[in-house]
């Protein structure tokens, strides 16, 4: 009791959830003299936990009792401490908390912090309102192909590439080589992996995957064992207008890396859900990279949209909200599969451990999200009444993305969030015949032909 911190200046707080996260949090709140919170009770929907105590703090009710308990205890904040929660629960609790005159805070998700303490509690983010997915992976399986290996990541400065570098670094590779053509983002990811790194560090490789000679030289001199190929152009509307640029980077760039890679132990191509039954230039080029990767004995990992990446719907909405609106959504019924970068990369590393050559590993965490609802939630977090304007679907855009193409079966033999689908091969020689300087219409048509099933392709 002498160690217990208390006193004026602390904010009275209710904790929602009576599990392991809440236990760690309450212990910190009670015994850390620097804790900004004074716990006044716990809420939990499990009737079996009524009258329980954590760190001496009692369970005083359930979700439905929040209004009453806030009034009785004088709590000014409610801290959400549930690690695996559906989006509806978090949104409902936020609405109840605001209606009761309090403020909702959340504990970090697994992976955001090493040890949970009262100082780690943060404001609600839009990713919290989309739900929290408990992703179980086997670190030993991932370490089995990364620890002590020479690992190369292309597109290392991008959202996925940089998170790959950070997570791979924790598995103690013999060398982590980070390749990108953008010097600013390359330096940023280098410092995020090692804040003490120097600019002359040989782990940083400034190169463009379009440059076949430079890529061959890097593979010849650095001899990577494992390759994660994340370099790509991905802005769908721009690529509809400039398909030649998509071909140069996404198709020819991938082929350059595959041909230079030779007999690396493991080659992982970062794909996208747009590759399933593609209807856009981005989708066509991603599907072709899956087929090329399969032809060279590598595997691809396919997943939905990544929240927070440059050009993503999240960053676009945030900029529009900061500008005072309106927030633009293409269609009231448009849905997308959304994942956080951390979720996507964590699953990707595990998928690469259990995948086989010639497969696409399809990642799925949660159900498709209604984009209009995402916009409404972000506006609600901002607190200002802003309009939502519907602008219509753009060229090459689907109303709802799919993760599986025609004839692909959702087969999950090893992990509940990872499906395995076989990928037919594409002939590299035929792909090299693409004319990047063709008209946009002609090139897009040729890309569509290369993605068609063999039986429906026109005769040569």
TrEMBL record:
<dbReference type="Pfam" id="PF13727">
    <property type="entry name" value="CoA_binding_3"/>
</dbReference>
<feature type="domain" description="Polysaccharide biosynthesis protein CapD-like">
    <location>
        <begin position="151"/>
        <end position="420"/>
    </location>
</feature>
<dbReference type="InterPro" id="IPR003869">
    <property type="entry name" value="Polysac_CapD-like"/>
</dbReference>
<comment type="similarity">
    <text>Belongs to the polysaccharide synthase family.</text>
</comment>
<dbReference type="InterPro" id="IPR036291">
    <property type="entry name" value="NAD(P)-bd_dom_sf"/>
</dbReference>
<dbReference type="InterPro" id="IPR051203">
    <property type="entry name" value="Polysaccharide_Synthase-Rel"/>
</dbReference>
<dbReference type="Pfam" id="PF02719">
    <property type="entry name" value="Polysacc_synt_2"/>
</dbReference>
<protein>
    <submittedName>
        <fullName>Polysaccharide biosynthesis protein</fullName>
    </submittedName>
</protein>
